[in-house]
Design goal:
Family: Belongs to the aldehyde dehydrogenase family.
Largest sheet: 7 strands, mixed
CATH topology of the largest domain: Aldehyde Dehydrogenase, Chain A, domain 1
Number of helices: 15
Pfam family, one: Aldedh
Structural class: alpha/beta
CATH architecture of the largest domain: 3-Layer(aba) Sandwich
Number of domains: 2
Radius of gyration: 24 Å
InterPro entries: Ald_DH/histidinol_DH, Ald_DH_C, Ald_DH_CS_CYS, Ald_DH_CS_GLU, Ald_DH_N, Aldehyde_DH_dom, Aldehyde_DH_Superfamily
CATH class of the largest domain: Alpha Beta
Domain Aldehyde dehydrogenase: 29-495
Protein name: Succinate semialdehyde dehydrogenase NADP+ linked
Helix content: 25-40%
Strand content: 15-25%
Strand order of the largest sheet: 14-15-16-13-12-18-19
Length: 507
């Protein structure tokens, strides 16, 4: 049932049926008889977009049971058929790209052009995994150590997968996980973030049109964050795998909740990415790469450049050039308006946190080159924080230890490799890092020395469907995407054959 609040957004869509306000379980749109709902807000103006049913642990358990039943047949679906479903799902996403971007913009606050780019990125995982479904080769044949025997290995789908996704990439974090899971033959129960359920539900609508069998892809909407639905997905015996993207703190809790059932886990957690620019770097390329790596989603991504290290010889000039570009190109405003390049943060709390980190840096001696509190306008929504450039940063500041998760660029000065690597690796987390240099040996040496799961060399983009994505240390474990992305949703079985009557040599 559509709410009156959703009529405005629905009127913006070419296909209004993509805006769904019910959960999707077992191929049915349902509120499971619940009268309780929660509001979904537009972070730009805090207006209610619509509502969704606030489901609970019993509803999550029902979704898991439905998914388990669907898995019994879907696991035997031929790879070609699974590939065709994903190919159709991809085509439908591209066909409805504008509507999906509009939904994302209203619930997430990302400017329309950037939202469209995410939809393209999200759809690309379906394109990649429709091919990987056909390339999911079973395993290998090994000559046994026992004469005349053979050992065979092959891979099977792990089972029901619980998917818990964040608000900052409400489409791509689902497609990266669900695309691989379906390619492997698994069924899925998704718990999207309460801030951004409509992107997930739109994917469910398109998935149904693509021919996904009932019960294979399910979306449970809820306003809870850790308890109830999320806890059920972690503790339910029928869920064999949990894939989570979010904070390190929450990831650790989910691991605890999953321990009693010994689930297979993928944890893509927080980051604190070092972005390194040597004095021999192509400066124009580094400026372009830093803009891309910093301001995506208003700085609210786990691979955003967090600590920018610039070698002493070019430090002052680079900071000035970068600040000039930011002032020219970062245009704050209504994310639904053409020309806006900097949208709001997800909440007023998020904006307040970013402001407090900037104040901490200033108290420690950092200089505000651009932006900061003084650049805020009284007409700005409480969720906005201006694009800000800081220089003179020091390792002891909060912004050095925590993710900024906002449109703030923090510059550090360095002279030698030893000094640099000591600062860059001084972090509990290790997701992404970036290195700009024209010296191949230096690039290779520093990329290997950085304690991160991914490194971009002379590029600000490390996210690609063809590349494994994931971190080390407290940034989690497991890899999603790339050729190995399917492995996360499979288990290996070994069969040992004896008595084959094969010829043997007794020498």
């Amino acid at each position: 049932m559509a709410s009156s609040a959703s009529s405005l957004l629905r009127s913006k869509l070419r296909d209004p049926s993509l805006l769904r306000e019910q959960a999707y379980i077992g191929g049915q749109w349902t509120d499971r008889g619940k009268s309780a709902t929660f509001d979904v807000k537009n972070p730009y103006n805090n207006e209610t977009i619509g509502t969704c049913p606030d489901l609970d642990s019993a509803d999550a358990a029902h979704a898991v049971e439905v998914a388990h039943e669907a898995f019994q047949s879907f696991r035997h679906t031929p790879a070609k058929q699974r590939s065709q479903i994903l190919e159709k799902w991809y085509s439908l996403m591209r066909e409805h790209e504008q509507d999906l971007a509009t939904i994302l913009t209203y619930e997430n606050g990302r400017p329309l052009d950037a939202a469209k780019a995410e939809i393209q990125y999200a759809a690309s995982f379906f394109s990649w995994f429709q091919g990987e479904a056909l390339r999911a080769y079973s395993g290998e044949t090994i000559e046994s150590s026992v004469p005349g025997g053979r050992v065979l290995t092959f891979k099977q789908p792990v089972g029901v997968v619980g998917v818990l996704t964040p608000w900052n990439f409400p489409s791509a974090m689902i497609t990266r996980k669900a695309g691989a899971a379906l390619a492997a033959g698994c069924s899925v129960v998704v718990k999207p973030a309460a801030e951004t359920p409509y992107s997930a539900l739109a994917l469910a609508e398109l998935g149904e049109r693509a021919g996904i069998p009932a019960g294979v892809f399910n979306v449970v909407t809820t306003n809870e964050y850790l308890a109830s639905v999320g806890k059920t997905l972690c503790e339910h015996d029928l869920v064999k795998k949990v894939s989570f993207t979010g904070s390190t703190r929450v990831g650790k809790l989910l691991m605890e909740q999953s321990s009693s059932t010994l689930k297979k886990l993928s944890m893509e957690l927080g980051g604190n990415a070092p972005f390194i620019i040597y004095d021999d770097a192509d400066v124009s390329l580094a400026l372009q790469g830093l803009m891309a790596a910093k301001f995506r989603a208003s700085g609210q991504t786990c691979v955003c450049a967090n600590r920018v290290y610039v070698q002493d010889g070019i430090y002052d000039d680079f900071v000035k050039q970068f600040a000039d570009i930011v002032q020219r190109d970062m245009i704050a405003g209504d994310p639904t308006t053409a020309g806006t390049t900097l949208g709001p943060l997800i909440s007023e709390t998020a904006a307040t946190r970013v402001a407090s980190m900037v104040e901490d840096a200033k108290a420690g001696g950092a200089e505000v080159v651009l932006g900061g509190e003084s650049a805020r306008s009284t007409s700005d929504p409480a969720t906005f924080y201006p694009a800000t450039v800081l220089k003179g940063m020091q390792p002891g500041m909060r912004a050095s230890r925590e993710e900024l998760f906002g449109p703030v660029v923090a510059f550090y000065r360095f002279k030698s490799d030893d000094e640099l690597l000591k600062m860059a690796n001084d972090a509990e987390v290790g997701l992404a890092g970036y290195v700009y240099t024209e010296k191949l040996g230096r690039a290779w040496r520093v990329a290997e020395a950085l304690e991160t799961g991914m490194v971009g060399v002379n590029t600000g983009m490390v996210s690609d469907p063809v590349a494994p994505f994931g971190g080390i240390k407290h940034s989690g474990f497991g890899r999603e995407g790339g050729r190995v992305g399917l492995d996360e949703f499979q288990v290996m079985k070994t069969i040992t054959l004896g008595g084959l009557g094969l010829p043997t040599n007794s020498i």
